[in-house]
Specification:
heterodimer, A: 286 residues, mainly alpha, ABC transporter involved in vitamin B12 uptake, BtuC, two-stranded antiparallel ribbon, 2 strands, 71% helix, 2% strand, globular, B: 404 residues, alpha/beta, Rossmann fold, 2 domains, 7-stranded mixed β-sheet, 5-stranded parallel β-sheet
């Protein structure tokens, strides 16, 4: 087996998990015009929400996952009402700083309720199957499959539904959209809920793939940021492609640089894109 | 308003001087107590160990005082809780040093606390002895006022390697460690001995904390076909790593520190993944007379290595004071530490044994509940027994103890 193939496959799975928050981060940035750094922490919220349903109420993880989508969406909506809506007219910079504050608050709320210890879902760990020399885990396939389906649904929503079109209109020109009768706040609410749900779902995957602790999502934000920048802000397919590339480069990069520099790879991607092609892969303008 | 004449001022200051000097005069009397402080973690991350450590110190002191004290002087203990926090530890140490005038602080636990109170103790010439493992605890200038009974990372790496070498079937060993200040020094000691014994170190990989998955690290390690993975991390990252290693289909052995592969770890990965994982940590010297003495005096629920160390620390400090001439002080302890703890000399298993031998004018060698307690020039212990455990059916079971 050429080991490089295994690294690429590992990277694609990591990318699949990254894709969900990256798309949410990217679309919300375009719509609300500020990078919401709390998106990483929504992963943590989702993971713990599913933990409450799964380990607490003994619901199967599939159902708990749906519960986590709804719960995280609701948390994102509440955060928007409390923290971001009163600041809607401020400069993007102020809102970005506020989002970092929100991330701190959420992280510490989780810590306050569940403590600093890591947790795990009540599911058995299974050995990976070897297919054509590649080690492929059942959970990995599941994660990848669900991530792809969610991405397709998000894209279909944006392109095919009235609300999706309204969302894109608001993103392009909020003033014009409002004048034309687009209910801006409703559009924002739906996007916020959807973005939170995507990130929350990814959090469950992350908890399933690794373990659950209060810092799990926040530590991913650099990779999410890199994926969104690489894909071009505001483009869902771009963010998906960006996430997959970041995932693969981070994993395969360990062939060339010591694994302790994994996080640095995200920074290098951000810098390179900003220097070479600031609009990203899919973006036509910044 | 009255003014003081020069004569009155002189008189007043003479009296004040006498009053201020009174404690010194008192302590020069033969019956005045010797003050010693404990700084154990009664709360915080070390909260499961601190109370037993403090009880051990108290038990030793009760015996000393019952037997007539140190050179006729009783020991007075002052207890503070370091809360497993450097900041709380410093506040407590300040109080012990400035208010209680202790000559020694015994039984600090966390390295962060020991490192934080170390400068205060050195400056005030107060002897400090703890159970912290970080290499920095004894490194650098401390004028001999610092010692510990916990092995440094080099000794730990050596003992792990000794166990690996003793298992003849492990010929290909991969070293996989979390990025910590000791990952390198531990690894160098470990890898060196394993190589010298003829086995191969197939890979040496230091990984980053807080990554969602370690699949690629595991892929790299497994590509080298190890039959043992030495996993040197903390519990959270070891959980992720062990799961990824399992998922990747690895069927060989894993060895890890017991402080990482603990009950929380087994709960985190599940009994099936944890099954068969070897883990080891510094152990008390179970079959020594001092340990039997200790366990009779301090009944407890576990066999963790810290309380026996606290027992030994208090015993050694008392013996060093007993061996000293003149005023009891931190300087006396540090000057006599090696004279009472290291060979050569008549073996003493307790303060009572040692004090008797000292009174007969003999040189003694304290052999404790936690090990032989012999110190090198910077205050590190030279050897310690290690317990080897293996996870069987969801619980770590003691397999063997490796004596140095």
């Amino acid at each position: 087996m050429p080991p490089i193939a295994q690294y690429v496959f590992n990277g694609i799975v990591t990318g699949g998990i990254l894709a969900l928050p990256s798309v949410a981060f990217s679309l919300l940035w375009r719509l609300l015009r500020f990078p919401n750094f709390a998106v990483g922490t929504y992963l943590t919220v989702g993971a713990y929400a599913a933990l409450v349903f799964n380990a607490g109420a003994h619901v199967p993880l599939e159902i708990a996952w749906l519960g986590a989508l709804a719960a995280t969406g609701a948390v994102a909506l509440a955060v928007d009402r409390i923290a971001f809506r009163p600041m809607r007219e401020r400069r993007p910079f102020s809102l970005a700083i506020a989002s970092i504050g929100v991330a701190f608050v959420l992280e510490n709320l989780v810590r306050f309720v569940w403590g600093n210890d890591f947790r795990a879902y009540d599911v058995p760990v299974t050995r990976a199957a070897v297919v054509a020399g590649l080690r492929i885990g059942r959970e990995q396939l599941l994660i990848l499959g669900v991530a792809v389906v969610l991405m397709l649904l998000a894209q279909a929503f944006l392109l095919r539904t009235r609300l999706g079109v309204a969302m894109r209109a608001t993103a392009d020109n909020p003033l014009l959209a409002a004048v034309k009768g687009v209910p801006t706040e409703r559009v924002i609410a739906v996007a916020t809920f959807g973005g939170g749900a995507l990130a929350g779902g990814a959090g469950v995957f992350l908890g399933l793939d690794a373990s659950i602790d209060p810092l799990m999502g926040g530590s991913l934000i650099i990779s999410v940021f890199a994926a969104a920048i690489l894909g071009g802000i505001g483009s869902a397919p771009g963010a998906l492609a960006g996430a997959l590339i970041v995932g693969v480069v981070e994993e395969a990069g360990t062939l060339l640089v010591p694994p302790t520099y994994k996080t640095a790879i995200g920074f290098v991607i951000i810098l390179t894109v900003l220097l070479v092609r600031p609009s990203g892969l899919a973006g036509s303008r910044s | 308003m009255t003014t003081m004449t020069r004569r009155e001022l002189l008189k007043a200051s003479a009296t004040t001087g006498l009053v201020l000097a009174a404690p010194a005069i008192l302590s020069a009397q033969s019956k005045a107590p010797i003050n010693i402080g404990t700084l154990c973690p009664l709360t915080g991350a070390g909260g499961s160990y601190g109370p037993d450590m403090q009880r051990s110190v108290v038990a030793v002191v009760e015996r000393i005082n019952k037997a007539g004290g140190i050179q006729g002087r009783p020991v007075q203990l002052f207890h503070e809780d370091d809360q497993t926090s450097a900041e709380a530890g410093v506040r407590a140490a300040r109080k012990l040093i400035d208010v209680n005038k202790v000559v020694a602080i015994v039984s600090t636990w966390a390295s962060a606390v020991t490192l934080a109170v170390r400068p205060l103790c050195v400056e005030a010439q107060v002897f400090l002895i703890g159970v912290s493992g970080a290499d920095a605890v004894t490194q650098g200038e401390h004028k001999g006022y610092v010692a510990r009974t916990q092995p440094n990372t080099k000794l730990q790496g050596t003992m792990y390697a000794k166990f690996v070498v003793s298992k003849k079937e492990w010929k290909r060993v991969a070293y996989l460690a979390l990025q910590t200040p000791y990952a390198r020094s531990f690894g160098d000691a470990f890898n060196g001995i394993v190589r010298a014994a003829g086995a191969t170190i197939t890979d040496d990989l230091i990984y980053e904390d807080k990554k969602p998955s370690y699949r690629s690290e595991v892929t790299r390690i497994l590509a080298t076909n190890p039959d043992l993975i030495m996993l040197e991390g903390y519990t959270p990252d070891s959980v992720v790593m062990a799961k990824d290693i399992y998922k990747a289909g690895y069927k060989g052995a894993i060895l890890a520190p017991s402080f990482a592969v603990n009950a929380k770890f087994i709960e985190g990965v599940g009994a099936e993944v944890a099954e068969g994982i070897w883990n080891m940590d510094r152990a008390p010297l179970f079959d020594s007379p001092a340990y039997k003495d200790f366990s009779a005096a301090v009944p407890r629920n576990d066999t963790s290595p810290y309380a026996p160390q606290a027992w030994d620390q208090m015993s050694i400090v008392a013996l060093a004071l007993a061996a000293g001439k003149g005023e009891a002080s931190g300087a006396v302890i540090k000057d006599n530490l090696r004279a009472v703890a290291n060979p050569p000399g008549s073996v003493a298993y307790s303060f009572a044994d040692g004090a008797k031998l000292l009174a007969e004018g003999k040189k003694i060698n304290y052999e404790g509940a936690s090990g032989s307690c012999d110190f090198d020039a910077i205050g590190d212990i030279l050897s310690a027994p290690f317990a080897v455990q293996q996870v069987r059916k969801g619980k770590s079971e003691l397999v063997t103890v490796i004596n140095p």
